[in-house]
Write a structure and sequence with these properties.
Layout: H1 3-23, H2 30-37, H3 41-47, H4 51-74, H5 80-97, H6 99-111, H7 116-142, H8 153-171, H9 181-195
Helix pairs in contact: 1-2, 1-4, 1-6, 4-5, 4-7, 5-6, 5-9, 7-8
Length: 197
């Protein structure tokens, strides 16, 4: 893809995510996205087939950057305690910095129940996260950082993702709770119990 086209598409993706996070999927229009990206509606139709196509591609774009930075933060740990603390910090950071995007993920999961394109993006995004975290845990186990049963690593990862989503959903409407350390103490204990099996 030529550089100027790539920059334009990335700008459209970022604008789409911003509009979706602010207005929600159902209320967002092609015109809203075009206005936010400062491009013509015709250009959107040149690059994408319809609103569903733009949204699906924007979600892929958003998933990638969010999870890539999270995996990078987790890959530098050298102890179970650091891993637990890093996982908690990733969640806190995502809630603090972009609560609208976190809320959007839940809304888009619901929209995926009605849209094959969006459902496919979620399934692929989730599998990428599962594989990345599973590889990270297995690497950490191979290097003596954590103690896990390799055969159970996928199950552990799915529990971690469920915890992440469950806690994130609870904190979206009350982001100040992320600063309440009493909330994180039992979460940390649960994580440590998983990493020291």
């Amino acid at each position: 893809m030529p550089k100027d086209r790539e920059e334009k598409v990335n700008r459209i993706m970022a604008a789409t995510l911003a509009v979706l996070a602010k207005k929600g999927y159902e209320s967002t229009t092609i015109n809203d996205i075009a206005d936010s990206a400062q491009v013509s509606r015709g250009l959107l139709h040149y690059y994408f087939t319809d609103k569903e196509d733009i949204v699906a591609k924007a979600m892929t774009f958003g998933f990638g950057s969010m999870w890539d930075s999270a995996i990078m933060a987790l890959s530098a740990v050298r102890s179970p305690e650091q891993l637990a603390d890093s996982m908690i910090e990733v969640l806190k950071k995502n809630i603090r910095q972009d609560p609208d995007f976190t809320a959007l993920l839940f809304e888009m999961w619901c929209s995926g129940r009605r849209s094959k394109k969006i459902r496919k993006v979620f399934a692929e995004g989730l599998e990428k996260v599962v594989v990345s975290l599973q590889s990270l845990l297995e690497y950490a186990a191979a290097n003596g950082i954590v103690q896990i049963n390799k055969a159970e690593s996928e199950g552990l990862v799915r529990i971690l993702i469920a915890m992440y989503h469950g806690i994130a959903m609870q904190l979206i409407d009350n982001p100040k709770k992320t600063e309440d350390e009493e909330i994180w103490k039992p979460v940390r204990r649960v994580l440590l119990s998983m990493f020291k099996t």
